């Protein structure tokens, strides 16, 4: 049913919300109740002065009655319906539903959004438990310490004589282990808190760097203008971070400054305006390497271009830079999906690769990933080059080619038959 | 004749507690704290039972178990595995590697003693 034919339904909804009888509204609008009934059931069109009068009586803007629910609400409902294809939701009546029950519709759309946010949180936490070596080690340490305390305490509590030297030994062990347990617990709480508020006190250095980059929006105006020293900026931004994280951040910012010097933002924007977000084309045009262009495109301000994601990995596949997009997640820990062009690039160094991608699960957007592996550092005669792969993630244009389904990481990927699977998925099961 | 048990574990206080309990039960307890040469230790001592931790410095308990099970001399050696991970797939991994019994930390002394006695009943 077309949206502009639902004005009557919206009048009825608003009248009921106002606690007004049909006869009362008809009387105030100087029409018969039976005619209003026809209008409210969308059997008579309404417009002009009568519409304005009814809107005034109902104390709403006329546009509310004629235009119905906001497009975002309709879009939210469509997303909810698409996510539960077997639910039997009457998609063809979605507009009628939103128009007649705006409160319920908003609640449904908001609930769907909330579920999405919670799903992403579960993904993050599951990912962390699986791949975070610090967390796994801390939990193992705690359980081992508890085992030692439990065992020693049980020996002391058992009836029967225990030689005095063994008694002293077990008392000492319990004392030591309880202190160790307290310290491990304190560290673990601090570590988990760090994940919540991005405070980096006890987080892994890479995680600290990721948090600092994210909080800066992956963009540093002082480095763009050449007015800041990368090392000094790293010290300032990483004042609360570990020394290792500051050192890593300094390297990232140093490269950022060099990129900004070699590819100034005005030149990049000019090329972008002419070619679109095509890193290989822009690289050729500006006479630099595509990896550098990918880093520059990922640093573009939001008002200039749609946000682009970036993943960088070393030759071992470890992610060393993560700039996720709201609809294209990157794992916080461990390796990503082996189907990503990022990893294909490592097997075909210097070869530009582009592929349309979509992540599974919710109705995520479609993307085009551009990837290339380039040597890291200078080439040394007689030594094999060390490669580093970049993958720029660009939102796909409407009507883009069929997307290759990829995941975030195996642990949370529902694709059951995948040659690249490393471990079972908690979602698939 | 006393029976010998090899405890491969890197937590000193767990070693002391388990050693005490097993010694009191009549076992001769040998200990080893490193994963790297743990299999070699089993070959040299040839104990009646092995208690093997999963997370060891140098090498995982699963790897040690697989290596031992690959040798005919240790195909039937009773091996009790101790781990802090109690998930189903960890148990499956231990079972596929050929473990005789599997215990999740924290366990009670009596559970551990019962498991060891079940693995090597007195003739």
From TrEMBL, chain A:
Q: Which UniProt keywords apply?
A: DNA-binding, Transcription, Transcription regulation
Q: PROSITE patterns annotated for this entry? A: HTH_CROC1
Task: State whether keyword Cell membrane applies.
Answer: no
Stored InterPro entries: Cro/C1-type_HTH, Lambda_DNA-bd_dom_sf, TransReg_Diox_bact_type
Tell me which residues make up the HTH cro/C1-type domain: 11-65
Is Secreted set as a keyword in this record?
Answer: no
Q: Name one GO molecular function term.
A: DNA binding
Any one Pfam family here would be HTH_3
Query: Mind naming one GO cellular-component term on file for this protein?
Result: cytosol
**Which branch of life, at top level?**
Bacteria
Q: Know the name of this protein?
A: HTH cro/C1-type domain-containing protein
Q: What is the lineage of its organism?
A: Bacteria, Pseudomonadati, Pseudomonadota, Alphaproteobacteria, Rhodobacterales
Automatic annotation (TrEMBL), chain B:
Note whether Endoplasmic reticulum occurs among the keywords.
no
Residues in a coiled coil are none
Every copy of the Response regulatory domain together lies at 4-120
User: Which GO molecular function terms does the record list?
Assistant: DNA binding
Give the matching Pfam families: Response_reg
Q: Name one GO biological process term.
A: phosphorelay signal transduction system
Where does the record place the modification 4-aspartylphosphate? Answer: 53
In terms of InterPro entries, this protein maps to:
Bact_response_regulator, CheY-like_superfamily, Sig_transdc_resp-reg_receiver
Q: What is this protein called?
A: Response regulator receiver domain-containing protein
The organism encoding this protein is Roseivivax sediminis
């Amino acid at each position: 049913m077309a949206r502009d034919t639902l004005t009557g339904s919206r009048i009825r909804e608003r009248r009921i919300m106002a606690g007004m009888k049909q006869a009362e509204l008809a009387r105030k609008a100087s029409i018969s109740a039976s005619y209003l009934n026809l209008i409210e059931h969308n059997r008579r069109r309404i417009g002009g002065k009568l519409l304005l009068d009814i809107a005034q009586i109902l104390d709403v803007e006329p546009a509310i009655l004629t235009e119905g629910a906001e497009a975002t609400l309709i879009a939210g409902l469509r997303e909810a319906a698409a996510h539960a294809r077997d639910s039997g939701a009457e998609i063809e009546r979605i507009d009628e539903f939103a128009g007649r029950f705006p409160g319920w519709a908003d609640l449904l759309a908001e609930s769907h959004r909330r579920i999405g946010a919670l799903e992403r949180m579960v993904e993050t936490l599951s990912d962390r438990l699986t791949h975070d070596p610090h967390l796994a080690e801390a939990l193992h340490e705690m359980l081992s310490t508890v085992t030692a305390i439990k065992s020693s305490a049980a020996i002391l509590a058992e009836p029967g004589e225990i030689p005095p030297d063994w008694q002293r030994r077990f008392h000492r062990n319990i004392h030591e282990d309880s202190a160790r347990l307290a310290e491990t617990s304190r560290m673990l709480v601090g570590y988990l808190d760090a994940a919540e508020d991005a405070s980096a006190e006890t987080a892994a250095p890479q995680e600290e760097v990721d948090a600092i980059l994210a909080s800066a929006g992956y963009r540093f105006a002082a480095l763009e203008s050449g007015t800041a020293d990368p090392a000094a900026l790293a010290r300032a931004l990483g004042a609360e971070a570990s020394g290792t994280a500051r050192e890593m951040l300094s390297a990232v910012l140093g490269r950022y400054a060099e990129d900004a010097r070699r590819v100034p933002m005005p030149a990049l924007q000019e090329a972008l305006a002419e070619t679109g977000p095509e890193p290989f084309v822009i690289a050729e045009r500006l006479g630099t390497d595509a990896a550098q262009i990918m880093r520059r495109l990922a640093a573009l301000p939001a008002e200039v271009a749609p946000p682009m994601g970036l993943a960088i990995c070393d030759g071992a596949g470890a992610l060393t830079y993560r700039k996720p997009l709201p609809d294209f997640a990157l794992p916080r820990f461990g390796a990503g999906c082996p189907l990503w062009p990022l990893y294909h690039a490592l097997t075909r160094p210097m070869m530009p690769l582009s592929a349309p991608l979509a992540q599974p699960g919710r109705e995520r957007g479609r993307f085009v990933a551009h990837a290339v592996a380039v040597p890291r550092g200078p080439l040394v005669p007689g030594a094999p080059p060390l490669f580093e792969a970049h993958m720029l993630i660009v939102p796909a244009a409407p009507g883009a080619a069929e997307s290759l389904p990829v995941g975030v990481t195996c642990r949370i990927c529902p694709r059951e038959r995948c040659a690249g699977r490393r471990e079972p998925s908690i979602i698939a099961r | 004749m006393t029976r010998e048990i090899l405890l491969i574990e890197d937590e000193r206080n767990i070693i002391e507690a388990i050693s005490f309990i097993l010694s009191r039960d009549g076992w001769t307890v040998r200990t080893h704290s490193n994963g790297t040469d743990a299999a070699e230790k089993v070959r040299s001592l040839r104990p009646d039972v092995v208690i093997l931790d999963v997370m060891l410095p140098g090498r995982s308990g699963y790897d040690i178990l697989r290596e031992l099970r690959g040798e005919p001399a240790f195909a039937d050696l009773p091996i009790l595995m101790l781990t802090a991970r109690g998930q189903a797939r960890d148990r499956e991994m231990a079972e596929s590697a050929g473990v005789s019994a599997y215990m999740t930390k924290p366990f009670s002394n009596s559970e551990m003693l019962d498991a060891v006695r079940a693995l090597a009943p007195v003739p």
